[in-house]
Design the sequence.
């Protein structure tokens, strides 16, 4: 076994590998960019080396610098995690030439599976079922369109060297093909430095089911069962579970054998994932093989009780597989969700900023949180905005679903936008609960999963008011205690009046709505809107609030001028409102579009002077390796573009001058 391992990655996977290495007594070496100097994985590792500026192409994708760091640190092996250089044959080869063990498959296996087109040729020879499509090397746009037109729409364009949903589009008609192809090629080139694509027939309501495989240097290959990753948006996985609902033992064994045949065809060693797409009739087809550990590997660990990173380390050091196929257990059900810093209501645009509040549910044998951030860390525009993976396990799928909803309700994030409420609605959706999940579920149920923002209920408003009163009392007590007369009656905040009770009004702004609560101080205590109210707790974490006969638990966090109220799995933002301070009113915003994040302008699809409808594409920008389309906020006219194709723009930069129609 190794004594020192370098992790050539960042975020939660780097932290995950460090945790296993620490348990095994292996020292760890982290690499980091200048933007990640204070990152969690750097803080956890035994030593760390800076490998370049913030941009991943200048740091985490610099194989030469990472190899130098490994040699300088004395690391015997490199764990690539996932993403970045994890499936880069040049990096694996450079490690081998430097005498460093690459914790992954042989270079030949990475090369064989690195091209989706070449991989499908190999799989056809190994008699692994394939989706009909074009997987060749000819990349002329007219030729590719002819291939697509011959399949009948819809078709799927996929980056040949890609993964993670990047460089992938569903095309519904021949007229839409040229623009979709150009977008896929740009995204593929930016993410993988390879713009080649393949075309496949798109299956209606398909399921995405993948098999975890492991191979050792002695030629043994095993399957660790399947994962269902069908809940996706823009071809990126959102929820994963194991085992897949509705898969019986016979189909599980059949898919496992096909996955092992695929791995055996390329002499596979280490952890890998064979991904299949399945139709509603149960037939399945090979999509690709990921020659690395997957983001969703924890659900496999939860149902088998195994540490897959430990398996990787042992196999890379020359050991045989720890278990045979018959010895691998399968117990219960596990579900994983990916928590992102993003704004679901704004097309899932990434949210950048400081994690001012980051409270995780308590971990146990049934609940696990894998994260690469801590409270106070910042979400950078340079990398994927995933904050954490929340994984739960229970004896049955129904109980695991309920446990996931409870754990999501206990997760509190403030400072950046997040998808917790979206995930809760998805997990609680009838089709998910019944196990009827396909890759189009999220888009099909978008209106249900991303409803218009709901107002804070009266109970949450009351909790915020009690918290406000408690905070005022605490501040006055501190001031009075430090004064010349700490026992002065002016330091009391019980609202006492000689001839009656005091009444005041607390006001809050929620979005564009103003909410108010009447506070009356009686001898018996405080009343809110005519009901007796009380609070118990220290003000840190969950507190118990009572209003009339209603009781609720809430956690309230103040960030700047805002109160973030977490209660019952919901998150509401209230801003204490002072009518005098806002007497001047709000100015109407100037018409136009501004950049929601730093990024690069890749296309300006509308002409200056053009009359466009609401929702028409005006700007396409690339940020965090994905393309995002900014659309017209209303029917109107494009007055001017304030940016140009290829320009790198800052967050908030004005991009379009737009005039709404009257």
Sequence:
């Amino acid at each position: 076994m190794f004594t020192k391992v370098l992790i050539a990655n960042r975020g939660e996977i780097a932290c995950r590998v460090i945790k296993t290495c620490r348990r095994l007594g292996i020292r760890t070496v982290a690499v980091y960019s200048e933007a990640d100097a204070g990152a969690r994985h750097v803080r956890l590792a035994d030593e760390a080396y800076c490998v370049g500026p913030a941009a991943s192409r200048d740091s985490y994708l610099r194989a030469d610098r990472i190899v130098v760091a490994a040699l300088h640190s004395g690391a015997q092996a490199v764990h690539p995690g996932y993403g970045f250089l994890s499936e880069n044959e040049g990096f694996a080869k450079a490690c081998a030439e430097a005498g460093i063990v690459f914790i992954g498959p042989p270079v030949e296996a990475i090369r064989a599976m690195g091209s989706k087109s070449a991989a499908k040729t190999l799989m056809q020879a190994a008699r692994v079922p394939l989706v009909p499509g074009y997987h060749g090397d000819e990349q002329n746009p007219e030729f590719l369109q002819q291939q697509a037109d011959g399949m009948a729409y819809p078709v799927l364009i996929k980056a040949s060297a890609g993964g993670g949903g990047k460089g992938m589009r569903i095309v519904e008609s021949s007229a839409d093909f040229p623009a979709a192809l150009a977008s896929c090629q740009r995204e593929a080139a930016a993410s993988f430095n390879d713009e080649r694509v393949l075309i496949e027939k798109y299956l209606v309501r398909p399921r995405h089911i993948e098999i975890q495989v492991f191979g050792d240097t002695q030629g043994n290959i095993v399957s660790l069962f399947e994962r269902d990753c069908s809940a996706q948006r823009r071809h990126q996985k959102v929820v994963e579970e194991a085992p897949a609902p509705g898969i019986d033992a016979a189909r599980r064994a059949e898919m496992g054998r096909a996955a092992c045949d695929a791995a055996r065809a390329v002499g596979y060693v280490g952890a890998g994932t064979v991904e299949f797409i399945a139709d509603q009739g149960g037939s399945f087809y090979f999509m690709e093989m990921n020659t690395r550990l997957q983001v969703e590997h924890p659900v496999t660990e939860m149902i088998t009780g195994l540490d897959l990173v430990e398996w990787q380390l042992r196999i890379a050091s020359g050991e045989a597989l720890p278990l045979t196929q018959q010895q691998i257990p399968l117990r219960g059900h596990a579900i994983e969700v990916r928590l992102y810093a993003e704004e679901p209501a704004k097309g899932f645009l990434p949210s950048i900023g400081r994690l001012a509040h980051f409270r995780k549910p308590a971990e146990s044998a049934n609940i696990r949180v894998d994260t690469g951030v801590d409270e106070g860390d910042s979400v950078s525009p340079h990398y994927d905005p995933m904050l954490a993976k929340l994984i739960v396990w229970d004896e049955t799928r129904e109980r695991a679903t309920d446990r996931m909803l409870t754990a999501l309700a206990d997760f509190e994030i403030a400072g950046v936008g997040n998808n917790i409420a979206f995930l809760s609605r998805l997990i609680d959706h009838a089709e998910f609960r019944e196990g009827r999940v396909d890759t189009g579920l999220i888009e099909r149920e978008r209106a249900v999963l991303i409803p218009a923002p709901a107002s804070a209920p009266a109970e949450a408003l009351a909790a915020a008011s009690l918290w406000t009163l408690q905070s005022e009392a605490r501040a006055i007590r501190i001031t009075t205690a430090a004064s010349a007369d700490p026992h002065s009656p002016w330091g009391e905040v019980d609202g006492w009046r000689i001839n009656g009770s005091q009444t005041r009004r607390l006001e809050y702004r929620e979005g564009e709505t103003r909410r108010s609560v009447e506070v009356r101080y009686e001898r018996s205590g405080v009343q809110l809107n005519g009901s007796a109210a009380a609070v118990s707790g220290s003000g840190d974490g969950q507190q118990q609030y009572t209003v009339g006969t209603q009781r609720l638990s809430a956690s309230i966090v103040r960030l700047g001028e805002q109160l973030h109220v977490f209660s019952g799995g919901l998150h509401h933002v209230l801003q204490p409102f002072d009518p005098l301070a806002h007497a001047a009113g709000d100015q109407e915003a100037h018409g136009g579009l501004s950049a929601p994040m730093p990024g690069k302008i890749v296309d300006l699809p509308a002409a200056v002077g053009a009359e466009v409808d609401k929702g028409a594409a005006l700007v396409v920008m690339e940020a965090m390796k994905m393309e995002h389309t900014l659309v017209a906020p209303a029917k109107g006219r494009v007055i001017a573009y304030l940016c140009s194709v290829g320009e790198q723009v800052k967050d908030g930069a004005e991009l379009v001058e737009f005039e709404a129609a009257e």
